[in-house]
Amino acid sequence: MMMQEQIREEAGGAMLFDASLAPAADVRWFDRGYWQQRDALRVQSGGRGGVAVIDTPAGACVLRHYHRGGLVAKFNHDHYLWTGAAHTRSFAEFRLLAHAAGLELPAPQPVAARYRRHGLSYTADLITRRIEDAHTLAQCLAEGRLDADLARETGALVARFHREGIWHADLNAHNVLVTAGALYLIDFDRGALRTPAEAWRLANLARLRRSLVKLGAIERIADFQATIWGPLVYGYERTLGA
Ligand SMILES: Nc1ncnc2c1ncn2[C@@H]1O[C@H](COP(=O)(O)OP(=O)(O)O)[C@@H](O)[C@H]1O
Ligand SMILES: [Mg+2]
After folding, report:
1. H helices of the chain, where?
2. Which residue is closest in CA terms to ligand 1's atom 24?
3. Boundaries of domain holding 109
4. How confident is the model over 73-122, as pLDDT tens digits?
5. CATH code of the domain containing 166
6. Is the CB of 136 under 6 A from ligand 1?
7. Ligand 2 centroid, distance to 9 Cα (angstroms)
8. Atom 1 of ligand 1: nearest residue by CA position
């Protein structure tokens, strides 16, 4: 079904949702308590502060509150400077995911996004369809399941997005989901459409490599370069050129 973007103004903010997928979407959907009262809340650890898994009329979804990382997080953990609705983290990610869905790329399907204004700043939340029975690539590495085949598929996955000019701002092993049937890229916060250029494509790949190295891939896997990184780059190049 075609995505049908609809905006609804709320007191102190606004929400955006896909009216074809979630016609009943409501601002209460962003409130964990709302789902808890309905016995439809499951909390999942991982990521910053964890995400909530909610059973909505649009199927199982993931509810994420936008949090800052790094130093500023200490005193300003979830407030962002307001520069207009289209620039909010949640609306921007929703629209980038909708664009990816239109291209049939493997990323979470966006369901609803919202922001709330607090003077000069805002806070934001996003709801996406849950990818079921998935493990992160980081978990696969920890469990000894990252092999040349999975590495090649990961490279091909990244190339499919790059081919369409989709830049991922935080490409790391926690943002690649692996299921029995397919791989997905998630977490497009701050991602953007970019003019094709080798510099940003290589920077994305380098970030993924650093993430694997940081998770101990070199100590864990004999000859990481030949058995994992080589196949990953091979899968990437092959798909990019296809
Ligand atoms: N749509 C989704 N389906 C399944 N799991 C998800 C989904 N979105 C997020 N997750 C899980 O939650 C974790 C954190 O979400 P993510 O979007 O990466 O936010 P952040 O890294 O900012 O905390 C992911 O690593 C993944 O395990
Ligand atoms: Mg993440």
Report:
1. 32-37, 89-102, 137-142, 148-163, 198-214, 217-220, 224, 230-241
2. 47
3. 5-129
4. 666 789 999 999 999 999 999 999 999 999 999 999 999 999 999 999 99
5. 1.10.510.10
6. yes
7. 28
8. 130
